[in-house]
């Protein structure tokens, strides 16, 4: 009984050791679910990223040339205006009073001139009579000279009054211009993009931006731009005519096409930052109402030169970079090629890259299947691991393939 | 009885083994045997496994940490990589403490239940019973060590060190699946240990099998019931 029990116990122990080992061996290694894509030729579009803001080609900041309380505002922000249209009226009372006063002064000066003219005419007549009397030696020389002197003085006074009238008329003209300036009219066809003054506030003429000096901004909305600052290290690759994609900060899902129109010759230096070159990108006409001047925006300028050809490329996320353990040696890039259901690490040499693809110059050929994701699988994938297409990834990969085919065909 | 004789007796004539244990309640040998075996397999596992990989798996499997952003996850993984030796040493320190605590709790329950049911044995005797009834757990270490030796990579699931668990033998649920923790911690040798403990209590109490089974299994049934309720839902 005891010997039998010992044998039985021994057999049980043996089974407890052998069975789990056998089970593990029979199960083999884990098969990792991965996204597997076929390597194909892609058109690489390297880009430069820059940030800036949206703006219009022409933006006119309206300031008042006369001081006055705002009496009437005839537009609101966003209104479309025509050149010469009345936008805003300042209270004209003070300037109008000044005009009336000067008009009265001018009228008074005219009356004075008339009076002096009559007086001069009288003196001229008397002077002629005195001349005859002097020729006949009826009057002495002193009396004649007094008369001549009175006439000359009257002439000078008349000239002086005329000059005074001209001065008053000039002041009157200036006052009338001031009066006209109490009405602000649109200098161009466009849209009111900013309205900073309110009825009752005082408009202040000033060259610097102080409260009350800026009234409104009128912009020519027919030309829309993104003005971005390109880092000095990238500016050499930016050229007029290059295509760009603009993504406004508030609408990250929207992107507008644009074309580089100008690249600044001189840099702009912001304190504490590197030098940047302002680049103006004209947006295409078909942009929607999401455009807001002054809004921050990000630009991707496509710096591809000339007629580029498609190259063997892999998705950027498929490439794994490892630092070299040797000093002064460059690290190596690799991808996992799927060979007979196993991930095989393949060292590659890379070329141009854009946001989606990176060209492979050596190491992987077109048509090879490579592991492209997901990131958590790719991160821990090891040479020789068993992999299979993740069920959900098949449709995605097929869709990506179709998209790529369409893109290639279009090009 | 020498410890080896005791081992053989437990497997072949457990009543005799428990009668002997009542006379000489020696607990050090089974405790050390289980401790050394557990330490060996645990330390080897942690030295071999890719700690960043296993931590990433655990973070994704745990509902409370699954929602972490990639940046937060990367930060945690970087810390794990930085302090990998700490993890190994933590395991070395935690294993004896945990083992001692579990055995002491078992013995405490037996003492308490013994006092209530008039099974007059001391804590030392119950502590010895708890250690000897779990000694066959070392058997699981052997297939675990074999499996570890056979594994070439370093991405090794923790189930490998629980080769006789219900999950490893029958279910093969991945980490994070419902019931994974429960079925991984429940193994065949737990049943062997429970059976031995029931025989031991019956021998020492001279009561019925039902009494002995309730005496031994009541706390485990309560704990397992609570765990199952949380993990299987």
Radius of gyration of chain A: 45 Å
Q: For the report, how would you describe the main beta sheet of chain B?
A: none
Average pLDDT, all residues of chain B: 89
CATH architecture of the domain at 31-44 and 309-410 in chain A: Beta Barrel
According to CATH, what is the topology of the domain at 31-44 and 309-410 in chain A? conserved putative lor/sdh protein from methanococcus maripaludis s2 fold
Helix content of chain A: 25-40%
Q: Secondary-structure element order of chain A, as H and E? A: HEEEEEEHHEEEEEEEEEEEEEEEHEH
Count of beta strands of chain B: 0
Shape of chain A: rod-shaped
Total strand count of chain A, please? 22
Could you tell me the mean pLDDT of chain A? 86
**Low-confidence blocks of residues of chain A:** 395-411
Strand content of chain A: 35-45%
Number of domains of chain B: 1
Biggest interface goes to: A-B, 24 and 28 residues
CATH classification class of the domain at 31-44 and 309-410 in chain A: Mainly Beta
Element pattern of chain B in H and E: HHHHHHHHHHHH
Q: Distance between termini of chain B?
A: 48 Å
Major sheet of chain A, described briefly? 6 strands, antiparallel
Categorize the overall geometry of chain B.
elongated
Strand percentage of chain B, roughly?
Answer: under 5%
Which features characterize this protein?
heterodimer; A: 411 residues; alpha+beta; conserved putative lor/sdh protein from methanococcus maripaludis s2 fold; 6-stranded antiparallel β-sheet; 5 helices; 35% strand; B: 233 residues; mainly alpha; 12 helices; 74% helix
């Amino acid at each position: 009984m005891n010997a039998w029990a010992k044998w039985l116990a021994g057999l049980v122990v043996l089974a407890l050791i052998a069975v789990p080992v056998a089970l593990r061996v029979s199960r083999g290694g884990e098969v990792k679910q991965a996204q597997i894509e076929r390597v194909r030729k892609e058109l690489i579009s390297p880009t430069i990223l820059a940030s800036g803001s949206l703006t219009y080609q022409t933006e006119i900041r309206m300031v008042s040339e006369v001081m006055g309380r705002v009496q009437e505002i005839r537009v609101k922000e966003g209104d479309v205006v025509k050149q010469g249209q009345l936008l805003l009226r300042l209270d004209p009372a003070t300037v109008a009073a000044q005009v009336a006063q000067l008009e009265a002064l001018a009228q008074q000066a005219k009356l004075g001139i008339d009076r002096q003219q009559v007086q001069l005419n009288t003196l001229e007549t008397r002077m002629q009579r005195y001349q005859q009397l002097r020729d006949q030696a009826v009057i002495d020389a002193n009396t004649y000279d007094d008369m001549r002197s009175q006439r000359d003085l009257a002439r000078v006074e008349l000239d002086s009054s005329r000059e005074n009238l001209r001065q008053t008329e000039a002041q009157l003209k200036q006052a009338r211009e001031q009066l006209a300036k109490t009405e602000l009219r649109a200098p161009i066809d466009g849209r009111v993009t900013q309205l900073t003054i309110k009825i009752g506030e005082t408009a202040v003429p000033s060259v610097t931006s102080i409260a009350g000096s800026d009234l409104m901004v009128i912009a020519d909305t027919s030309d829309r731009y993104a003005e971005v600052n390109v880092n000095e290290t990238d500016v050499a690759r930016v050229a007029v005519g290059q295509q760009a994609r603009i993504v406004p900060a508030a609408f990250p899902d929207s992107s507008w096409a644009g074309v580089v129109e100008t690249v600044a010759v001189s840099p702009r230096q912001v304190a504490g930052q590197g030098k940047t070159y302002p680049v103006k990108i004209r947006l295409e006409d078909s942009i929607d109402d999401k455009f807001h001047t002054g809004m921050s925006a990000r630009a991707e300028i496509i710096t591809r030169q000339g007629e580029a050809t498609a190259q063997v490329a892999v998705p950027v996320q498929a490439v794994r970079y490892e630092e070299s353990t040797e000093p002064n040696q460059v690290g190596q890039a690799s991808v996992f090629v799927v060979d007979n259901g196993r991930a095989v690490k393949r060292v590659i040499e890379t070329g141009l890259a854009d946001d989606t693809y990176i060209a492979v110059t050596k190491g992987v050929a077109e048509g090879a299947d490579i592991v492209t994701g997901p990131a958590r699988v790719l991160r821990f994938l090891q040479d020789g691991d068993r992999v299979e297409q993740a069920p959900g990834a098949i449709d995605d990969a097929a869709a990506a393939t179709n998209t790529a085919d369409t893109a290639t065909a279009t090009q | 009885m020498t410890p080896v004789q005791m081992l053989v007796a437990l497997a072949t004539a457990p009543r005799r083994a428990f009668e002997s244990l009542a006379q000489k309640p020696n607990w050090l040998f089974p405790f050390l045997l289980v401790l050394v075996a557990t330490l060996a397999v645990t330390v080897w596992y942690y030295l071999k496994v890719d700690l960043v990989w296993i931590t990433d798996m655990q973070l994704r499997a745990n509902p409370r940490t699954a929602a972490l952003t990639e940046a937060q996850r990367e930060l945690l993984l970087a810390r794990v990589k930085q302090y990998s030796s700490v993890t190994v040493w933590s395991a070395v320190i935690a294993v004896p403490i945990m083992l001692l605590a579990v055995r002491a709790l078992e013995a405490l329950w037996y003492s308490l239940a013994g006092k209530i049911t008039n099974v007059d044995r001391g804590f030392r005797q119950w502590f010895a019973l708890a250690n000897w009834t779990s000694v066959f757990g070392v058997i699981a270490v052997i297939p675990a060590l074999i499996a570890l030796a056979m594994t070439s990579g370093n991405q090794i699931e923790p189930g490998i060190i629980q080769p006789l668990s219900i999950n490893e033998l029958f279910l093969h649920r991945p980490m994070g699946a419902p019931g994974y923790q429960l079925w991984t911690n429940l193994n065949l040798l737990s049943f062997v240990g429970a059976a031995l403990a029931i025989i031991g209590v019956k021998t020492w109490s001279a009561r019925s099998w039902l009494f002995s089974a309730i005496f031994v299994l009541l706390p485990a049934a309560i704990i397992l019931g609570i765990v199952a309720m949380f993990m299987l839902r």
